[in-house]
Design a protein that fits this description.
The complex is a heterodimer of chains A (375) and B (415). By secondary structure, chain A is α/β, with parallel strands linked by helices. Chain A contains nine helices and 17 strands. In chain A, the strands form three sheets. A six-stranded antiparallel β-sheet of chain A has the order 4-3-6-1-2-5. Chain B has a two-stranded parallel sheet. The chains are: A alpha/beta (375), B mainly alpha (415). The A-B interface holds A 14, 17-18, 20-22, 26-27, 30, 79, 81-85, 319-320, 322-327, 329, 341-342, 344, 354, 356, 358-359, 361 and B 28, 32, 35, 38-44, 51, 54-55, 58, 96-98, 101-107, 109-111, 114-116, 125-126, 129-130, 133-134, 212, 215-216, 218-219, 223-224, 227, 279, 282, 316-317.
């Protein structure tokens, strides 16, 4: 038994000698991109249209996919117009017997990634993945810390992680309808309060309605155009047994902050997930933070990041100083920079763009708002 | 060729400073057009080339496992040579230029790429991207001009040791990757420094280079031949790998010589470059300091699109697959401003570059004033210049130049 690992190690060593200056994985990726040990990727199995501008993307993840808990999200990297873009999406299927995972995406009108996923993604193509993440999950039932009586409060697209949880309890069958056979699965007592500007035409809203009709959940929908803007003061009236329930909420930051204050005052348990990521507003110049030394400088809109860093005593890699040699490339962790040659903007949003930031040429880039540079 | 500032009529004398800045504006516009349309098709192109190269390399190496059979040896060697050329030229060189950084794919990125060459990516990127591309064709600043071992310009004083430069150039071609590694390290300059005074940075880079060379040699000359041993193909595989490296070296050396060395490509004087050279001035220097190779699509790919050397020097970070479409626009700009767009087929450019190497290995004017009848006396003169002191050399040089001037005057009169 001890022979096998030693032998494997020796084979690996020889393979490395053969592959230099590349690594064996570079060759294996040509033939088996989803094998164990490869960077995590997934094959697109199907793109199922849900509504006019939403689709469920079914993925077969690579061998190293560690699985997920309903409610978690996954970061997906896709090449849109040749450029690798990373976005986080809630996993909308409970773990399935066939090992596939899925995300449901609504195309944002002027978005980059979501319209691509909904309208242009081809089955059979490869996407990049990270392992599932997120603490916003359905608590295991019956424990003291995780009561079975829950209020699931969702606003707008904040519905998606909750759908992930509900679909785990009531899986979607092959024909796309909810399997209601496992009614009141695992003894949960669920109230779902869904807020939206108006009654949405979405697969998720229909799922909620189906579950409510079957008695699996108690659904309260509040639409601004129908019921007026939701007021937290009404919460107790809508959910009379609120005091017995733990609340899981997902929606925009403002609502969550108000909810946190409300629940703290009332001494109620709350678990939240903010859904809309921070957006970057590009301007002229801004505060630049160099992360390794935690140096902060105020850089002008016409000054290169390289000059800004050097003038603040940061040890910046540099080269030709004219955008030719790529000797000064470092990752932009967050914020926006503008190419001094043609004004093109590059923005990095942690958790949304690449896990290692976006490499930028500091000698021809200027701050376009506050930004963080990894150097 | 003489640095442009010392020529009787500079090829850019007719350009006003406004012209030069306007050239910059127009070239920037051409660059922007490509940036605006850069996308999925370009990404698909480089991925296809990488995919093809890896399959070709694996296939060729597999065939070489039985290279004791002559057809297998020939097939495998040709395949491996092409794979190695693609890897160095169309992939390695261009990826390390940052041409594909815009894809944000960490696997095809200038900061992560390592190539199948003796010189590590780090050192090469410094000497090539930073020095060669910034100081293109500036005598004394750009090591790509003669790699510090050759006389590349009339203005460099001739010395008898230059007689050997056709031979050095040939040897450099055969072992080009090691030549590149040596000049990326600035080996000549650094070895001249006493051992204890050499910089830590040099020592570190030298260690990295030696480690890289050891890995490269282990792969091609130990492990792959050993894998072929069971079929009795150890030596044939070794020979095949050596041949493939040789072919790749000679090919890349030829292509690179064609880029900056043919007769008619301009060189520049260090002191004539303004300290704050404008973008327009830099563009014009790139325009005059490079030469193209005309030919088929396959030839362009095999040169890593360095056959579009002029376009590459103007836009070193544009994806190489786009140079071909940019070329006619660039050429039109040359014509508009009455500049010489230097392009010719490969054999012609290789001949021209070698002609220059040979011509400059001899004293100025010697080749031009030599004909069949005066050959014995000219050889005697060359012998004297090579063996006697500097004084004799100076006198003979003056005589040669005088003869050349008279000859030129006579030709003008005849015309």
């Amino acid at each position: 038994m001890t022979l096998a690992p030693a032998l494997l190690e020796r084979v690996t060593r020889v393979a490395e000698l053969l592959a230099t200056p590349l690594v064996p994985a570079d060759y294996l990726d040509v033939f088996a991109p989803l094998r164990a040990g490869a960077d995590l990727r997934a094959r697109v199995v199907a793109v199922q249209p849900e509504t006019r501008d939403a689709a469920t993307i079914v993925l077969r993840p690579g061998a190293d996919w560690a699985g997920h808990v309903p409610g978690q999200y996954v970061r997906i990297g896709v090449d849109v117009d040749g450029v690798r873009q990373w976005r986080a999406y809630s996993l909308t299927h409970g773990p399935r017997p066939d090992g596939h995972i899925s995300v449901t995406v609504k195309a944002v009108a002027d978005g980059t990634v979501s319209p691509y996923l909904v309208h242009r993604l081809e089955p059979g193509s490869l996407v990049h993945l990270e392992q599932a993440a997120g603490d916003f999950v359905l608590p295991a039932p019956g424990t003291a810390e995780a009561p079975t009586k829950l209020l699931l409060l969702t606003a707008g697209s904040g519905i998606t992680p909750v759908i992930g949880m509900l679909r785990n309890l009531h899986p979607v069958t092959d024909s796309g309808v909810l399997d209601l056979a496992r009614r009141r699965a695992a003894g949960y007592d669920l109230v779902v309060l869904h807020l939206a500007p108006s009654a949405p035409d979405s697969i998720f809203a229909r799922d909620l309605a189906t579950l409510a009709e079957a008695g699996a959940i108690r659904l309260i929908s509040r639409y601004d155009d129908e019921h007026g803007v939701f007021d937290l003061a009404d919460l107790t009236a809508l959910v009379p047994d609120l005091a017995e329930r733990a609340t899981l909420a997902c929606g925009p930051g403002g609502l969550l902050e108000a909810l946190a204050a409300h629940h703290e005052e009332a001494g109620l348990p709350l678990s939240v997930e903010q859904f809309r990521p921070t957006t970057v507003v590009a301007g002229e110049g801004g505060e630049v933070r160099f992360t390794s030394t935690d140096t902060v400088v105020e850089a002008g809109g016409a000054q290169s990041l390289l000059e800004a860093g050097e003038s603040a005593g940061v040890l910046m890699p540099s080269g030709c100083r004219m955008g030719v040699c790529f000797g000064c490339v470092v990752p932009l962790r967050s914020g926006a920079v503008r190419d001094l040659r043609n004004g093109a903007l590059t923005t990095a949003v942690p958790g949304e763009t690449g896990p290692d930031g976006i490499p930028v040429q500091t000698c021809v880039s200027a701050a376009a708002g506050p930004c963080e540079i990894d150097v | 060729m003489t640095v442009i500032t010392k020529q009787p009529v500079s090829p850019i004398a007719h350009l006003t400073p406004e012209d030069i800045e306007q050239i910059g504006v127009e070239l920037d516009a051409i660059r922007q057009e490509v940036l605006d349309s850069r996308g999925a098709a370009d990404a698909a192109y480089i991925r296809k080339v990488v995919d093809t190269q890896r399959k070709l390399e694996l296939g060729s190496r597999a065939v070489l496992l039985v290279s004791v059979l002559p057809p297998a040896w020939i097939l495998g060697t040709i395949g491996l040579s092409i794979a190695k050329i693609l890897e160095n030229m169309e992939i390695g060189h261009n990826v390390m230029h940052g041409q594909w950084d815009w894809m944000r794919d960490p696997k095809i990125h200038s900061t992560t790429w390592e190539w199948d060459n003796a010189s590590p990516a780090e050192g090469w990127k410094h000497s090539h991207n930073e020095l060669h591309h910034t100081y293109t064709n500036i005598i004394g600043k750009d090591n790509d001009l003669g790699y510090g071992i050759m006389r590349v310009d009339e203005d460099q004083r001739w010395h008898p040791m230059h007689l050997g430069q056709p031979l050095w150039n040939f040897i450099n071609a055969c072992f080009f990757e090691y030549g590149i590694a040596a000049y990326d390290l600035e080996l000549g300059r650094n070895l001249a420094i006493p051992k204890e005074k050499r910089s830590e940075d040099f020592k570190r880079r030298a260690r990295n280079t030696l480690a890289k060379i050891r890995k490269q040699a282990t792969k091609d000359y130990v492990v792959h031949p050993l894998l072929s041993a069971p079929t009795g193909s150890l030596l044939p595989t070794l020979a095949a790998n050596f041949t493939a490296n040789l072919v790749r070296n000679v090919w890349s050396h030829s292509v690179i010589m064609c880029g900056h060395f043919p007769e008619g490509v301009e060189t520049f004087e260090k002191k004539a470059i303004p300290a704050n050279e404008t973008r327009g001035q830099w563009y014009v220097r790139q325009m005059l300091g490079s030469a193209n190779i005309s030919g088929s699509k396959a030839m362009h790919v095999m040169t890593g699109n360095l056959s579009h050397q002029i376009e590459h020097h103007l836009f070193p970070d544009l994806p190489s697959n786009r140079y071909a479409e940019v070329a006619p626009k660039v050429r039109a700009l040359f014509e508009k401003y009455d500049l010489n767009y230097h392009t010719a087929p490969l054999p012609q450019q290789v001949y021209s570059a070698w002609h220059r190497v040979v011509r400059l290995s001899l004293p100025n004017g010697w080749l031009a004033t030599t004909n069949a009848t005066n050959l014995p006396s000219q050889l005697k003169l060359l012998y004297a210049m090579s063996t006697k002191g500097a004084k004799v050399r100076r006198a003979a040089q003056a005589r040669l130049e005088q003869t050349e001037r008279r000859q030129a005057a006579a030709e003008r009169a005849a015309a």
